[in-house]
Amino acid sequence: ADPRMVELATAWLLMRAGDFAQAGVIYQRVQAQMAHAPHDRNHARLLLAYCLAREGKHNLAINELDLLASDRGWAPRALEAKAQLLIMMDDPRRAIETVARLHAFARDTRSAEYLERSAMLYARLDRMDLAIGICQELIQAMPNDDRPYIVQADLLTSAGRRQEAISLYQTAIALRPARVSNHLALARLMDAQLMPMDALATLENLKN
């Protein structure tokens, strides 16, 4: 067996056991040895950054994520992890800058997944205007897909804007009437809005 793979497996088990310091030492050593295996090197670097962050070595973790972000194939994962870490560090200015970079990458590569993740990160930063703006981008790009409407509805629900979310769920159901989870989410939301009869009617429609 490749000894580096054995070391990576060992580091993973140490990380799972909460020994982030020792796991980080192994990830640091292994990623330095993998110049000719960029995927494995970058994976080790991402896990190293996670271990450093869990140890409270936030600036070192950010340094590793910045290095990782220089690889275009790993940039979205690195930027997302960096934004999450900056949010945890209560550094909203740099977090918003990082999410903006992730948003730009997602737009350039037409990645619906990372557009959605950018929206969620903006919402965590209390920038609902930017989050909703991204949702509108998704809707314009995929007007006949229910997913962008659900993403925006979930964000509005978390912000307490339930009535707006109800309208979006109804649109999503019209687009994809067979998706049971949308009906259930709408019924729960209506119930929370003290609309029990509408919630029951939603579930009755599901039966039919």
Question: What this model shows, in words?
Answer:
This protein has 208 residues and is mainly alpha-helical. 80% of the residues lie in helices and 0% in strands. The protein contains twelve helices and no strands. It has helices spanning 3-16, 20-32, 38-54, 58-69, 75-88, 92-109, 112-124, 128-141, 147-158, 162-175, 180-192, 196-207. Helix 4 packs antiparallel against helix 5, helix 5 (75-88) runs parallel beside helix 7 (112-124) and helix 10 (162-175) packs antiparallel against helix 11.
- Helix percent reads over 70%
Average pLDDT over all residues: 92
Helix/strand/pairing category? mainly alpha
Order of helices and strands: HHHHHHHHHHHH
Shape: elongated
Number of helices: 12
Q: How big a fraction of the residues is strand? A: under 5%
Which segments are poorly predicted (pLDDT under 50) over 5 or more consecutive residues? none
Annotation, overall tally of beta strands: 0
Cα gyration radius (Å) = 21 Å
Q: What can be said about the biggest beta sheet? A: none
* Cα separation of the termini: 57 Å
